[in-house]
């Protein structure tokens, strides 16, 4: 799968996660899952899913519009007044 297709898929996943963030179906659920309220367990899983998607976005979709072979980096110069000579 090329970089553009990954980016499209990950942006779609991010949009789906945005819609799933408010768990309206668990607001009145008083059951316990793993000893925790259902809404809390849902948000723990949600945070894990968002972390995975955003981590993949850093690898495959950032910076936006970059070609697949763009890996060239330049060193960051030191701040003014803090050069090599002290």
Tell me what you see in this structure:
The protein has 86 residues and is mainly alpha-helical. It has a domain of 58 residues. It contains two helices and two strands, in the order H-E-E-H. A hairpin with a 2-residue loop joins strand 1 and strand 2. The model has no long low-confidence stretch (mean pLDDT 83).
Task: Summarize, please.
With 86 residues, the chain is mostly helical.
Distance between the termini: 49 Å
Low-confidence stretches are none
> What oligomeric state best describes the polypeptide chains here?
single chain
Order of helices and strands: HEEH
Strand content: under 5%
The shape is elongated
Helix content: 40-55%
How many strands, what sense, and barrel or not for the largest sheet?
2 strands, antiparallel
**Strand arrangement, largest sheet?**
1-2
Mean pLDDT: 83
Structural class: mainly alpha
Alpha-carbon Rg, integer: 21 Å
Number of strands: 2
Q: Helical element count?
A: 2
């Amino acid at each position: 799968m090329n970089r553009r297709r990954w980016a499209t898929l990950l942006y779609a996943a991010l949009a789906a996660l945005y819609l799933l963030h408010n768990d309206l179906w668990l607001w009145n659920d008083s059951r316990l899952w793993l000893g925790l309220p259902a809404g809390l367990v849902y948000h723990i899983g949600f945070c894990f899913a968002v972390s995975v998607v955003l981590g993949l976005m850093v690898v495959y979709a950032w910076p936006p519009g970059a070609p697949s072979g763009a890996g060239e980096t330049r060193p960051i110069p030191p701040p003014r007044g803090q050069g090599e000579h002290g």
